[in-house]
């Protein structure tokens, strides 16, 4: 009987890789199958056991917020850019993230009332401030547009995305609303 070669258990040395794999799998599966995708499917997609998943993320909500935190990291990097069109790029990326995973955004919106320390709304408002000011300084966005206006527009776009019938209709409807909003904000 021949012994098969298999990788040894790397234990704690694999923790960071396992976490990254879980986040990648969760992002993909939340976007594709929705927030209620079985956690076992996420673990399987990441190539780890469920025990590893639960060690990193004791609750489904913990996993969801960790994925959402990656979105914030991406938006923070985009917000720091100095391009004259940074506001439009920032706004469009937020809209893309919404369309990619409407159910996931719905979870985070719903979690605002459940997780006391949730500060996503305030963080997003802070992140919007600099790109909006840059767009206004560059003459690309009307000075009358406020961070609250942008937040309202994002909620409207989310409503359109959440109520669309099918992915093709969702993308088309969201693009129309996005274009309407941006055209209204231009000088």
From TrEMBL:
A Pfam family matched in the record: TetR_N
Origin: domain of life: Bacteria
SUPFAM superfamilies on file: Homeodomain-like
HTH tetR-type domain ranges (all copies): 16-75
Keywords from the UniProt entry: DNA-binding, Transcription, Transcription regulation
Molecular functions (GO terms): DNA-binding transcription factor activity; transcription cis-regulatory region binding
DNA-binding region: 38-57
Gene3D superfamilies associated with the record: Tetracycline Repressor, domain 2 (1.10.357.10)
UniProt protein name: Transcriptional regulator, TetR family
Species in which this protein is naturally found: Georgenia satyanarayanai
């Amino acid at each position: 009987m021949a012994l098969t070669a298999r990788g040894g258990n790397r234990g704690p040395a694999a923790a960071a890789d396992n976490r990254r794999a879980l986040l990648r799998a969760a992002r993909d599966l939340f976007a594709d199958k929705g927030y209620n995708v079985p956690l076992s499917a996420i673990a399987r997609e990441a190539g780890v056991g469920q025990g590893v998943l639960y060690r990193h993320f004791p609750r489904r909500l913990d996993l969801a917020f960790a994925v959402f935190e990656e979105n914030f990291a991406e938006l923070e990097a985009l917000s720091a850019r100095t391009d004259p069109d940074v506001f439009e790029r920032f706004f469009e990326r937020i809209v893309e993230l919404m369309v990619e995973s409407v159910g996931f955004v719905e979870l985070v919106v719903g979690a605002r009332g459940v997780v006391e320390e949730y500060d996503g709304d305030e963080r997003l408002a802070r992140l919007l401030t600099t790109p909006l000011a840059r767009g206004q300084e560059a003459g690309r966005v009307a000075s009358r547009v406020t961070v609250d206006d942008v937040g309202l527009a994002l909620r409207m776009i989310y409503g359109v995305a959440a109520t669309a019938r099918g992915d093709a209709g969702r993308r088309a409807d969201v693009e129309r609303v996005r274009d309407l909003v941006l055209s209204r904000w231009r000088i």
